[in-house]
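Design a sequence for this backbone.
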């Protein structure tokens, strides 16, 4: 009995020491509590107001702790993935990489604690494997959801791109400059995803960024080969002095042709994919029609 009590005390001390060392390692070097760079820029241009979980006064201590831990999260692959997906998804809430990682950590801890509570109620014990697994699932779910949103938005931009190029080319053919044509597109359809990205391009140019660099940044934010091709063609046309409206119209025709070729490939592959289900349906229909006769032949040895 005394030996069991000693072992429990030692295990408790080791657990306390592990938690203490973890907290000490995380908060040994305090970070300055200054806002993120993107939030300081948003405040400077008058877009500082937002309503997210980080602005909730009740949850502010918890989110501050999560943000401090996220700043020490040094898995560069995950950080780069979150940064690319935030850019591609449009980032409507203005999250920084650290803020989104902190939100993912809160989800991971919350789901882990919830699974632990359910396990205690149902089984009367705590399973560390389930706790770790559910924590990883909770952490990965927001990141995966962001990736899905970024992919869907990129596909919408790819569908809008040929029509936007046509409209810009027509506006330029009517006598407008490239900047005026883009501003017209943004003003007429401000809610479209591609026009939102063009608004960012215009804002970068107004802040002093050269147009080729701003267009290259657009191609970097949205992971689309077609968009990179168009931005490269526009920059090359400006460098060579080629008519920009003609280049845009040519790029639009090429995008539509590529879309038609891709649709033909998908239709051809669909006909092959549907072959196996069609054969299974035919086999089921044959069994339904001739099954009684087959059973009669097997049982009686005759058709009638």
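Sequence:
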């Amino acid at each position: 009995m005394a030996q069991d009590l000693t072992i429990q005390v030692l295990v408790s001390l080791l657990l306390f020491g592990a938690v203490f060392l973890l907290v000490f390692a995380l908060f040994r070097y305090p970070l300055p509590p200054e806002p993120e760079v993107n939030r300081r820029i948003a405040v400077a241009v008058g877009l500082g107001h937002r309503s997210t979980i980080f602005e909730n006064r009740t949850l502010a201590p918890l989110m501050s702790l999560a943000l401090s831990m996220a700043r020490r999260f040094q898995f560069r692959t995950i950080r780069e993935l979150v940064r690319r997906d935030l850019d591609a998804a449009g980032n409507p809430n203005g999250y920084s990489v650290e803020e989104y990682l902190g939100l993912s950590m809160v989800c991971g801890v919350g789901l882990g604690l919830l699974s632990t509570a359910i396990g205690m109620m149902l089984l009367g014990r705590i399973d560390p494997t389930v706790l770790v697994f559910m924590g990883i699932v909770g952490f990965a779910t927001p990141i995966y959801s962001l990736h899905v949103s970024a992919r869907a938005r990129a596909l919408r931009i790819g569908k809008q791109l040929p029509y936007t190029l046509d409209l810009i080319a027509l506006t330029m053919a009517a006598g407008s400059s490239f900047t005026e044509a883009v501003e017209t597109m943004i003003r007429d359809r401000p809610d479209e995803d591609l026009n939102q990205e063009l608004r960012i391009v215009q804002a970068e140019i107004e802040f002093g960024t050269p147009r080729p660099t701003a267009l290259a940044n657009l191609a970097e934010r949205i992971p689309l080969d077609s968009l990179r091709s168009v931005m490269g063609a526009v920059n090359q046309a400006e460098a060579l002095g080629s008519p920009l409206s003609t280049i845009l119209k040519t790029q639009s025709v090429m995008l539509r042709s590529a879309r038609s070729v891709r649709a033909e490939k998908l239709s051809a592959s669909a006909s092959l994919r549907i072959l196996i289900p069609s054969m299974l349906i035919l086999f089921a229909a044959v069994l339904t029609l001739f099954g009684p006769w087959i059973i009669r032949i097997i049982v009686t040895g005759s058709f009638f």
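The mean pLDDT is 79.
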